[in-house]
Amino acid sequence: MTEPTPAGQSGVVVRSTVFGRIVRNPLGLTAIVALVIIGAAAAFAQVLAPYDQNFSDITNTLAAPGGEYILGTDSGGRDVLSRLLYGGQLTLASALLCASVAILIGLPTGLIAGYYGGWFDSTASWFANMILSLPGIMVLLSVRAALGPSVWLAMIVFGILLSPGYFRLTRTVVQSVRNELYVDAARVSGLSDLRIIARHIMSVVRAPIIIQTSIVAGVAIAIQSGLDFLGLGDPAQATWGIMLSDGFRNVYLNPLLLVWPTLAIMLTIASLVLLGNAVRDALEDGQKITAKRRPAGEKKPSRSAALPAVEAGTEQHLLKVSHLAVGYPQADGSIKTVVDDVSFHIDRGEVLSIVGESGSGKSQTAFSILGLLPDTARIVGGSIQFDGTYTVAPGDDTVSAERLGALRGRRISYIPQEPMSNLDPAFTIGSQLVRPMTVVLGISKAEARARALELLAKVGIPNPQRTFDAYPHEVSGGMAQRVLIAGAISCEPDLVIADEPTTALDVTVQAEVLDLLRTMQRQLGVGVIIVTHNFGVVADLADRVVVMQSGRVVEEGEVLDILRHPKHPYTQTLLASMLEDKQPMTKLTVDAAAGGTA
Amino acid sequence: MVSFTLRRLGAGVVLLIAISILTYSILFFSSANIARNLVGDQATEEQVALKEQQLGLDQPFLSRFADWFMSALSGDFGRSWFTSEPVAVAIANRLPITLTLVAVAILLTAIVSTLIGMLAAVKRGWMDRAVQVGAVIGYAAPGFVLAVLFVTLFAVQLRLVPPVSTISPGAGAAAWFTSLLLPVIALAINAVASSAQQLRSAIIKQLERDYVRTLRSRGIAEREILFRHVLRSAAPAGLTILSLQFIGMLGGAVIVEQIFALPGIGSLAVTATSAGDIPVVMGVVLFTVIIVIVVNLLVDLVNGWLNPKVRVS
């Protein structure tokens, strides 16, 4: 079993520049080196190339590689290597032109549309959608028919065609930061819009633009080569596309001619894509969690082995959590512990409340019981037993999906915090209630339907049939929470875990939902774990309380004891922050007001 | 729903008219030497003038466009200046080939990229990394480069398929299959590479939604959550990705048809634009845009139908 890593160790993050991280990424470095070599070879073609691109040795056409012509000659007796180098010039320059045009149009319009919105936004978005629905090559063919075979013109037009990509990207990014607090703060402090855009917004847009450009440049190279391949370019200028076309025409005589331009095109585009990926990875590095590495010599605990028996004398507890620790592996190999050495138990028909502020690990504890932790989470210590059987045996590092699968819905159920996002918007409320009952209880659809209507009435929904037929967006938040409570009790579980069940609701609705929870708990006699930060909820419902801070249990006891005699300073702070105990405010009298202004 | 459809249809018609005007006005400036090219170098100035008059080239822009537009409205797209074949007939003969090519390729892309995207999203780990690597390779090989390699390898070197298509509107199924197999794959590989990755992100985004966790807590099996809920929620994003791929393929088909010598819209477009055959170019552009509009409309309708908020109202 892994020892829980001490908290704090995970906080050590090696800060490095984005460029540094790209260079340290082997693929990123390869891509940069390849692009630099390709770029330099093209830029210095005049110096490097042994022959002029159009110098033709008529007596020596389609020569094999080696000898005087290192890569051989093409059908016109021209040196393949020289043409490859010169071809890079035009191909890379046109990709650069295309990307520049696209950025010059897409970036400013995206900034303005995202920052100011309004009519400009709607007009520009309309244009962007229009351009996106044009088939690129068809447009380029028409332009060529109209204005002649100019590579530069074609690339400018293609740049315009690709500009919606930048427009959309910039607009989305700007919209997402426009209302961030730091942008508001900059605005309030009197910075001009121009300076806000230059300082705060450009820094956010920069990285996605680089990534997009790596893709756009690749597409431009493909299209430019494609046009030249079709013979729609300028035949006097060597490009990779023209070389490919020459090779294709002579495929029976010298298929090797195809290899060089193909390699050049594929290597360049692949390097661009890899560079884009490397930039993306470098930016995401902060949040990236690498796959878990096991310390050498440690063997994976076998799941098929028989479960050890739980500690004698604890079988009667409905749920017992012992020394539970939950952590998340970090990029640097350490484990960030969010729940540490947490122990408590709950018996049938009991209401236990886990109290703490956000980040105290209370929800993580609840999700460990349900087996609904994110994939990256690891159980780094302790055990959980339900009704005398381990769901997390000592030594397990994840919650067994198999064991929990048999319990979830059937014996343990869950009431979430935010009612609206916890119903699938695409299905009716009725079908979301009926399906679990047919799966878990094995009853027919008609039976489940009757039961669902009954449940809806039971949780205080005035017109069960209408709510049953409704989609989630058609009911209010309070109503949706009642639906979720109905869902949680629909299969007669032994334990209900409610994660902040009233936090997202209006104050008036909160009281009703708490009433409902209490009534349900008494009628059904189920055990309930309520996760909350609100001592009002605790006082209202709970029999016992577990107070958590920074992933640890700081105090546990009967609800009345804790409310009256909190021992731990943290509990005292939590209690003191409630309004109930405060002195009523004195009325603001004329005297006081007069005194205040004197 | 009806008004939604009508609005989209209206927007499509506006787009169509806008593009017709734009294309026609660009092409207008290019038609200066057409008459001379048609009658030949030896022709007299009178003959050139006569030809210009026949084609209506002596008319001002507005009246030329109005003429074309009115006859196009009545289904008459004119005749090719070079072959005298009616444009509508030329397109009708070639459209089935291009549409079959693109439709089969997009279907293949949809199936393969959904499968790959789903596996990468659910399994993560090595599968995920393999998809990333595959995407780079797929991106790096433009469709036409693949087409060239396929012809070289399978037709020229291995002689498994005929290097030039034997397809024609009346040909049998076997000819269609052998003629379209390689072009379809050449078109689809690039599309699969980019859409599989985008579909992966769309599916991961849905898997992280709150309701997925709640469904799990209710005892619904992982497989059912994935196929019944997650794929359905990711469908609108997926369809939008595929509709953009479809537009890209219409362009890609132009070059791929040329390589495999498929007598589709693409080769018609290349010949017509090289020669400056304005009626044919206009016809090709118009039909392509109509296809794009219809596909986008279908995607909007399906997405609207998938979204209960739109469907109910």
Automatic annotation (TrEMBL), chain A:
GO terms for molecular function: ATP binding; ATP hydrolysis activity. Signal peptide: none annotated. It is a multi-pass membrane protein; Peripheral membrane protein. The chain crosses the membrane at residues 27-49, 90-114, 126-145, 151-169, 204-223, 258-279. Pfam families: ABC_tran, BPD_transp_1, oligo_HPY, OppC_N. Keywords: ATP-binding, Cell membrane, Membrane, Nucleotide-binding, Transmembrane, Transmembrane helix, Transport. One of its GO terms (cellular component) is plasma membrane. SUPFAM superfamilies: MetI-like (SSF161098), P-loop containing nucleoside triphosphate hydrolases (SSF52540). GO terms for biological process: peptide transport; transmembrane transport. It is found in: Cell membrane; Membrane. Residues 319-575 form the ABC transporter domain. Residues 88-276 form the ABC transmembrane type-1 domain. Belongs to the ABC transporter superfamily. Belongs to the binding-protein-dependent transport system permease family. This is ABC-type dipeptide/oligopeptide/nickel transport system ATPase component/ABC-type dipeptide/oligopeptide/nickel transport system permease subunit. It comes from Microcella alkalica.
From TrEMBL, chain B:
One of its GO terms (cellular component) is plasma membrane. InterPro entries: BPD_transp_1_N, MetI-like, MetI-like_sf. Belongs to the binding-protein-dependent transport system permease family. SUPFAM superfamilies: MetI-like. The keyword Membrane applies. It is found in: Cell membrane. It is a multi-pass membrane protein. GO terms for biological process: transmembrane transport. This is Peptide/nickel transport system permease protein. Its main location: membrane. The lineage of its organism: Bacteria, Bacillati, Actinomycetota, Actinomycetes, Micrococcales. Residues 95-299 form the ABC transmembrane type-1 domain. Keywords: Cell membrane, Membrane, Transmembrane, Transmembrane helix, Transport. It comes from the Bacteria. It comes from Microcella alkalica. The chain crosses the membrane at residues 9-29, 97-121, 133-154, 174-193, 237-260, 280-299.
